[in-house]
Write a structure and sequence with these properties.
The complex is a heterodimer of chains A (476) and B (446). Chain A folds into two domains: 204 residues, Metalloenzyme, LuxS/M16 peptidase-like (Cytochrome Bc1 Complex, Chain A, domain 1), CATH 3.30.830; 206 residues, Metalloenzyme, LuxS/M16 peptidase-like (Cytochrome Bc1 Complex, Chain A, domain 1, 2-Layer Sandwich), CATH 3.30.830. In chain A, α9 crosses α15 and α10 packs antiparallel against α11. The radius of gyration of chain A is 25 Å and the shape is globular. By secondary structure, chain A is α+β, with helices and mostly antiparallel strands. Chain A is built from 16 helices and 15 strands. Chain B has two domains: 207 residues, 2-Layer Sandwich (Cytochrome Bc1 Complex, Chain A, domain 1); 186 residues, Metalloenzyme, LuxS/M16 peptidase-like (Cytochrome Bc1 Complex, Chain A, domain 1). A six-stranded mixed beta sheet of chain B has the order 1-2-6-3-5-4, sandwiched between helices. A five-stranded mixed beta sheet of chain B has the order 7-11-8-10-9, with helices on both faces. In chain B, a hairpin with a 4-residue loop joins β4 and β5. The chains are: A alpha+beta (476), B alpha+beta (446). β1 of chain A pairs parallel with β1 of chain B, so a sheet runs across the interface.
Chain lengths: 476, 446
Amino acid sequence: MKKTLILFVALLASVTLVAQQPDRKQPPPIGPAPSLKLPAIQKHRLSNGLAVWIVEHHEVPLAQINLIVRSGSAADPIGKYGVGSLTAAMLDEGAGTRSSLELADAIEFLGANLSTASSFDASSVRMSVPVSQLAEALPLMSDVALRPTFPVSELDRLRKERLTGLLQARDNVGALVQLAFPRMVFGPTHRYGTSANGLPATIEALTVDDLKTFYRSHFRPDNAALLVVGDLTPASALPMLEKAFGHWKADGMVSLVAEVPNAPQLTKRQVFLVDKPGAAQSQIRIGWVGVSRATPDYAVLEVLNTILGGSFTSRLNQNLREKNGYAYGASSGFEMRLSAGPFLAAAGVQTDKTADALREFFNELNGIVTPVPAGELAKAKNYVALGFPGEFETTGDMARKLEELVIYNLPETTFSNFVPSVTSVTAADLQRAAARFIQPERMAVVVVGDRKLIEGPIRALNLGPLTIVPIDDLFR
Amino acid sequence: MALVLSSPPAIGSGAALHAQAPALSVPYTQFTLPNGLNVILHRDTSVPVVAVNVWYHVGSANERPGRTGFAHLFEHVMFEGSMHVPEGDFDNWLEAAGANNNGSTNNDRTNYYIDLPANALELALFLESDRMGFLLDDKAPGKVDGQRDVVKNEKRQSVDNQPYGQAFVELASLLYPPGHPYSWPVIGSMEDLTAASFEDVARFFRTYYVPNNASLVIAGDIDIASTRQLVEKWFDEVPRGQPVEPLAIPTVVLDGVKRKTITDRVQLPRLYMAWHTPGLLKPGDATMDIIANLLSSGKNSRLYRRLVYDLQIAQDVAAFQQSQALGSNFLIIATARPGQDLAKIQAVIDEELDKLRTEAPAAREMTRALNQTEASFYRNMERVGGFGGKADQLNAYFKAAGTPAFFDQDLARYRTVTAAEVQAAVDRYLPKDRRVELSVIPGDKK
């Protein structure tokens, strides 16, 4: 290949300037922060009303196209938990006139990455493709999103794959705690208490008709948006998008889906222990029902969590990792969804320090309600605000940020307002939010680990009533 | 990203297989400081962020017997402050500037990145130069002890508590003879981590963490001339060390099949097959990547299609070339479905390898693999910082190819792989009678 690199090589150039002497007595001063210049979101509609948002991003010859459907696992009917997730997974297992294998071959041949996914709040078909192949790739994407065929043989194959995956979850403390914690906080009936993928009994029972019903109810242009980011313009992209998605019509009436209600808040602290004999570490999760994405305290909680467990220098990580060496890392977070998702603090800790680690967790959870020192507050605000531009770097990053606006119905000013709202957070704001949203004496404490070694020391902490949860309970 | 796209010339260039494919161009400035530090600057103004990326050309392969895991333990100590940076303030100051940072260790190298807003570049240069030149003070022994506990928990979390976690430890000792630098795992053993002393830390620092054994890339929203001045300001006074001799290790070959079965607390058996293959960027290395793609990338790939899709006797299958400086490994890993046994899975894998040996892959299959590879090159150009961003890649090319100007040549390696070469490489590098076969079956953890 002809060398096309532009070189400005200056090997071992003689020093022409007298180097300044560095002053290492204090860190060098930092100049004024650069401002983020957000590119314009160009909003259009196709002839069928489907919203199309385009952001031009011309650095690399790629296009990212995300079709977002505003319904996810939270819309699963009771008794059919997992149907939304399986519906999304089946979209590219046969669509239009192509079989599963033919689709995969056609997509990969173009160098495209196409994925289908769902969360509690949304379903998606996402594609990254060299922009030179966009015209070829869009008809494949629209087949997947608009004309899936749901072959029964493919459903049976994915069903077995998921059931085997759940069998393998029994091997892994990390997988077990991810099933256990939401179940203990939200219970077996609230949708957030069960994995979005569902559990064996329901996965066994799901039929092609179940999937088709879910699909017809939710995959419709008036419940979707198309997010387009990359080396293109509205003039170049809209005709292709119209051809691929403009004829999409809703099938029947808009189906009304009740919002997921906020789960009842926990009232007293309880400990749940899942036995995993021989585990080298205990996986710990401590938390309760948190907040929804619509919370007016969004920026305050971002800063609060950064201080508590959202950064390397956060209190939980400094305590459990750097000060005590009990863990490789410790963290916390609010999972904000359309309804209130969990708040949780988390770590994997060495088995013989499980109780010590729990005590330190509660020291930090209790301590966060007292006023945060000014330096710590300033550091956290800077970390959140100054790191924000980096979240818009790639075509994929940008499309994901746009998804937030669509799924949570947020105004376009959300991004431009974010940095000022972080900058204005005060220590009093944090104290008020901590008192309301972090109440350690009412949280669930979930531990997956070697019971014979950790039960006694945990009981001795007197955190609250302790329940042994059989592993089998996590799978039904 | 400042990806400069050049149209292929109308006449001349011999090897261009894809007339429409744009070239990958990452313009840079390179210079070496008097102390031997290699510096590469790349300007990309797409976001107001700068990536500072440092590679030290030392990895677990440089460890001494009885001190396995040491290169990685040392990497941890690098974040604990240095002579002019109090313990904890490396991260405190960076976070207060809105920066993210991390490091990683493998067999061949240790890398560090700091991604930060463009206005804070000088802070990163102060911190990187201070830990390169002045890491150790009287608090260092305590820091080593603290990180020793952290690393032991990293091992518990990422190896000991992971299903099948022991497999890669076993594979290393099956593939390589005792004493070979790749025969032990990067994370090391608990005993060796316990044994590591402050004296070891000091010796390792003096030997390997010297500017003449390192390479600094600064990429992003920078001004080239003033950035060069800042680099000279902060790094000129870092003292040069003794030259670091590259490891000279004879190539390892297997003279038969090495079989082993171990037990673990797992529900399903898993098979690992491994071979010795050409080293990173050596002739044949890219061919093995293409073979991996043909075998296990996508539903139509040969092993996935047979084992997971058609027969449904495996839950998953992966094939990949693990490229390393002193010689690579090619691995095939498959997990059995409940009730299925590994012998059947291995027989199907051998059937598929034989097919590739005896019959060249079809043109469409080759083009599909190449198009996926090419698209992945573009995706990798999107990010400037972090692990695998452009800054990290410039350093990787500098170490492996001797020049950061290697994006195009790297892609050309794949563009020129032929179906006949694939066939020949399977025959030569993936023989049935010289390989490692490791089975992990349900039982007690050993």
